[in-house]
From TrEMBL:
Name of the protein: Deazaflavin-dependent oxidoreductase (Nitroreductase family)
Reaction catalysis annotation: oxidized coenzyme F420-(gamma-L-Glu)(n) + a quinol + H(+) = reduced coenzyme F420-(gamma-L-Glu)(n) + a quinone
Coiled coil location: none
One Pfam assignment: F420H2_quin_red
One GO MF term: oxidoreductase activity
Amino acid sequence: MLFGKEHVERYQETDGEVGHDWQGTVTLLLTTTGRRTGKEYTTPLIYQPEGDAYLVVASKGGADDHPLWYANLQANPEVKVQVKGDKFAARARTATPDEKPALWRKMTAVWPAYDEYQEKTTRDIPVVVLERA
């Protein structure tokens, strides 16, 4: 997470006026349903548009395990997304091996540290495609 709970709250309160632009890039809010708890969890993530969809990266800073939000969307791909004031239901999917190289380059162009994160782990860091439901 970027700023954690405070980032989410300010983003929601201001329709992204505070929190969308972050450290030279842009963030959206992704809400997943906990695979064990059934509760909703909202995470700010760096994104890029891809046609009508949005891309995010399940990097967790290069940790050896996936972020919890990724495990949640694998169990239930129906998610909620907020990009500035635009709030919508979406379906999340992991980019295919054929899609991933081009999508990875698009994401590292706005956050080059993703390449460093991938070097830190043997885990294949997924690119996630969020498609409007």
